[in-house]
Amino acid sequence: MSSAEAVHTLGALAHASAHPASATGCACPPPAVLADRPDGTVVRAGGIVAKAHAPGTGGPEFAARLALAASPALSGVLLAPVPAPHPLPSVDGRPVTLWPYGEPVDPEDHEAAPWEEAAGLLARLHRTAPPASLPLPLPPMRGPAKAALAVTRMRAARSADPARDAVLAAWAALPGWARDEEPAPAARAGYLCHGDLHLGQLVRHPVPRGPWLLIDIDDTGTGDPAWDLARPAAWYAAGLLPGAVWTRFLDAYRAAGGPAVAAAGDPWPELDVPARALTVQTAALALAKAAEQGREPDEVERLMTDACARIASLPPELAVRRTS
After folding, report:
1. Nearest to 277 by CA among 192, 194, 177
2. Is the pLDDT score of 110 beyond 90?
3. How many domains does the chain have?
4. Which of 67, 100, 133 is the last residue of a domain?
5. Omega before 208 cis (within 30°)?
6. E strand spans, 105-256
7. Residues 154/284, Cβ–Cβ less than 8 Å
8. End-of-domain residue from the set 100, 135, 154
9. Model pTM?
């Protein structure tokens, strides 16, 4: 099925869900494509969004993640799916889910970015015990797996950029659990985690002024909650996120009782490994995309590869490796 055919199918599914069966004479605008990438195609029709998930998604792990989003225990934290036919429809073997439309973060209004709200939602997620009512056990969150996939993609792209060696050196300095080679330390592995937190994973629902909620359950599961703080921590360390914004985010997380870091004092003993892993992931993806597109990394991408070079230059005794 072509991309255009997939978009048409998703639009039809979303449109059918947005209207009662008896509706006639619909004057709705055409379905709108919100995203069309290898890791997901998302189409909106009215108040419903249909998403075809990444190839290879499915099975018991995906069913458990979807059930988590629908659980009353996560109401007000995760956007709940719209009930869909069983079994789930599919597009080219990719499972399709239906969701209420939520208003995303405005990428042009940096001042209004909901950092405090994101921190509060993460704290609530991390404080919530995995619901016993789920029909299947939750899998590990996919943060380390996504980092490993980014490095694999960079290697496959055969980037000739000199920064590639620094990225690989920073990757090699991480402990095995952060490279998805072994389980996370038991003391840090039992928390509910989003697995891929960034501002694109928040929407207001109901629109336009409803509360902020977390979306995208593809990487959720149990693991180290510090991973969900690692992207903003890595951006701050690389100079991409102003210190004042990082402080607002961290303070809001702590004020909400988030367990990923100590309630006061230096947060880096908990954040160091995940932040380094997210730095490598971001830099590896930057080099992979640049090589695939036949271009040089841009200024922002170069900040992340430079951060990997700094990480790789640290003597072993300064490369904190949390093991418990």
Report:
1. 177
2. no
3. 2
4. 100
5. yes
6. 191-193, 202-204, 212-214, 221-223
7. yes
8. 100
9. 0.93
